[in-house]
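Hello, quick one for you while I still have it in my head. Could you read through the record and tell me how the tokens relate to the sequence? No rush at all, and the record is pasted right below.
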Amino acid sequence: MAFEIRNIGEALDLDTGQVVALTPDYIKQLDDETLAQFIYESKRFAKLPKAGEEELKSRLESGKRFSMVDFGKPAKTKTIADNNARKRELVIKHGWDCVSFKSLNELKKIYGEKFEDEISDLIVIGEKNPALKWKV
């Protein structure tokens, strides 16, 4: 089965000439080769929404107005300043649970690569799901 993506959410089946809606149920019915082709072809479109959103933000920032979109209120973030004297006070008052380690990469930047050997008994190694590796 060969297809051509027509509109967002639709594809043209080149064998039958039928336009099909690309739903999760339809995708489950695809044979293995067609599914792989579909995912490969759809990767070309993956960058378009982000590029469109960046262009839209740029136009909004330059003063353009759109009927269906505008900037919302910016989110606020709270961070705790890294102050050793203050951390010591917190540990004395609340215990060790109120402070946490920096990431391994941050610690290695501060103390050097050999620091990993020093704390090797604390390091837990986990595996992530493997990424798809395209052969084309």
